[in-house]
Write a structure and sequence with these properties.
2 domains; Aminopeptidase; alpha+beta; 15 strands; 13-stranded mixed β-sheet; about 375 residues
Length: about 375
């Protein structure tokens, strides 16, 4: 039967767009069902402040009456300004293992961007470069850490056979308490002293003020990074509101030089260890009890953001932040952590993590296509 591609127009279309990954992957033990309430918010052009500067068109692929794939074409005007390139994005790609379905979806996203006079598309980004990005290339049997991508093992082949080129690889590193030797602990403590900055945790009573501090440091620290797009105030506050539900202040460190914030590391408990038990993605009526029960047993964390402003780089502050975050985390009962994502060509950060005893555990790829 022929494949039809149609834009999401009705509420029932949106429900099928949201439901597809649960139907495709629910039997795979590595699949962590995203919470449906959070997906609705992410896709909402009213609730998600990303859409104050972005446009999105969602598509469904059908064979007969059955939905077999989905994709979103995304135009982020802030990314166009910051990158100075006519590049659009695509995201939320899901498909059965069928190259014709994938071709049709990718071509629909490409055509939408051609109408907007863009020259290239890149992705996946769900929906922006500040959210979940990339295609998992390995370790498909491992569940993803919080806010990281997972896909089945046939996805890379769908991309590789759909006129895409590699844009960039990013890495995830893992480290456990047993990976850190006494010698590395001594070196880490020495490095913390040599940085000549002080480290503190955020003041949760002044959470909104601290969020603005972190946003300012982030936008300075990452401004030269590949794929960078600055967070707006509304976006950062929106993200912080979501994160605050699961935050552990012990996993957040701010580095200061005489009271001036110059770097920070943001870690989160890996709540996917609890969410994976909520197989239908719904907290109510019964999922919440499962989530709260398994939340008590979380033993892993993810360091998802680490940045140092330009004039304070090459002083070892980044390595010191990783070390200090991991030291505090182990004291609080976390026995392993993931650091992700790290650009493949960020030599200093890759080297620092390997020196700490971390191991590269996953690779994710962003793809691009000329239009």
């Amino acid at each position: 039967m022929s494949i039809t591609i149609s834009p999401v127009r009705s509420s029932s279309d949106l429900e099928e767009f949201i439901a597809l990954p649960y139907r495709l992957h629910r039997k795979n033990p590595a699949f962590v069902p995203p919470l449906i309430s959070e997906i609705r918010t992410t896709l909402s052009k009213v609730k998600n402040p990303f859409f104050k500067h972005a446009e999105m068109e969602m598509y469904l692929a059908r064979v007969g009456d059955k939905v077999v794939g989905r994709i979103a074409a995304i135009l982020d005007h802030n990314y166009l300004k910051s990158s100075k390139q006519l590049v659009g994005h695509f995201g939320f790609f899901e498909s059965v293992n069928d190259l014709d379905v994938a071709h049709a979806l990718f071509n629909s996203a490409s055509q939408w961007h051609r109408k907007n006079k863009l020259r290239k598309i890149m992705g996946p980004a769900n929906p922006s470069m500040n959210d979940e990005i990339g295609v998992l290339l390995d370790s498909f049997e491992e569940p993803p850490a919080v806010n990281m991508v997972w896909n089945p093992d046939y996805y890379p082949e769908l991309y590789d056979n759909s006129v895409f080129d590699k844009a960039k690889d990013v890495y995830a590193y893992s480290i456990s308490k047993d990976d850190v030797s006494e010698r590395l602990i001594e070196l880490g403590e020495l490095l913390v002293k040599r940085t000549k900055v002080t480290f503190r945790h955020p003041n949760m009573k002044k959470f909104n003020n601290e969020i603005e501090v972190l946003r300012d440091v982030y936008n300075q620290a990452w401004s030269d990074n590949w794929g960078f797009v600055p967070w707006t105030e509304d976006e950062f506050k929106h993200a912080a509101k979501i994160v605050r539900k699961v935050i552990d202040p012990n996993l957040i460190l701010i580095a200061e030089d005489n009271g001036k914030p110059v770097a920070f590391a943001l870690g989160l408990p890996d709540v996917n260890q609890a969410i994976k038990h909520v197989r239908n993605g719904r907290l109510f009526p019964f999922g919440l009890m499962k989530f709260l029960w398994h939340k008590r047993k979380i033993h892993s964390a993810r360091v998802l953001i680490l940045g140092v402003i330009k004039e304070y780089r090459h002083r070892g502050i980044d390595t010191a932040l990783y070390y200090e975050t991991f030291r505090v985390a182990t004291e609080k009962g976390y026995n392993q952590a993931e650091m992700s994502w790290i650009l493949e060509d960020n030599q200093s950060m890759n080297h620092a993590l390997l020196m700490m005893g971390a191991k590269k555990c996953k690779t994710y790829r962003l793809y691009e296509r000329n239009l």
